Amino acid sequence: MTTITTQTTSPVASTTSTSGRGMDALGQGDFLRLLTVQMQQQDPFDPVDNKEMLAQMAQFSSLAGVSETNAMLEQIADKLDQLIVTTQSATEI
Predict the structure, then answer these.
(1) Is the per-residue pLDDT at 79 higher than 90?
(2) Whole-number mean pLDDT of the chain?
(3) Which of 6, 5, 29 is nearest to 17 (CA)?
(4) Alpha carbon of 60 to those of 10, 54, 55, 57, 63: distances in Å?
(5) 3 state SS for the chain
(6) 85, 86, 88, 93 alpha-carbon torsion, rounded to 10°
(7) Given a cut of 80, is residue 1 above it in pLDDT?
(8) What is the tens place of the pLDDT at every residue in 4-42?
(9) pTM for the model
(10) Residues 42, 48 contacting (CB under 8 angstroms)
């Protein structure tokens, strides 16, 4: 009986640690790291379609823009809350 043992190694072994981070903490650097690993692991005789890769990059860019917009809206909401509190305390005096 023959036993087959496979060993897998990660190309991004210990360069960065992602333990303990949720999906919301992933950033553009993580995407580029995944893209690099994907390109290193792809079959040269059946490469990933360029259109697919460009679509993924466009989606990621769009997601990054939405995240920035959300962060800015949260800052605006915080400032509006501070303005309301300040206005209410000024009218009570």
Answers:
(1) yes
(2) 76
(3) 29
(4) 23, 10, 9, 5, 5
(5) CCCCCCCCCCCCCCCCCCCCCCHHHCCHHHHHHHHHHHHHHCCCCCCCCHHHHHHHHHHHHHHHHHHHHHHHHHHHHHHHHHHHHHHHHHHHC
(6) 140
(7) no
(8) 444 444 444 444 444 555 556 677 788 888 888 888 887
(9) 0.47
(10) yes
Burial zone of 34 (CB within 10 Å; 0-12 exposed, 13-18 middle, 19+ buried) = middle
Structure tokens at 70: 């959300």
Instruction: Quote the tokens at residue 50.
Output: 């360029």
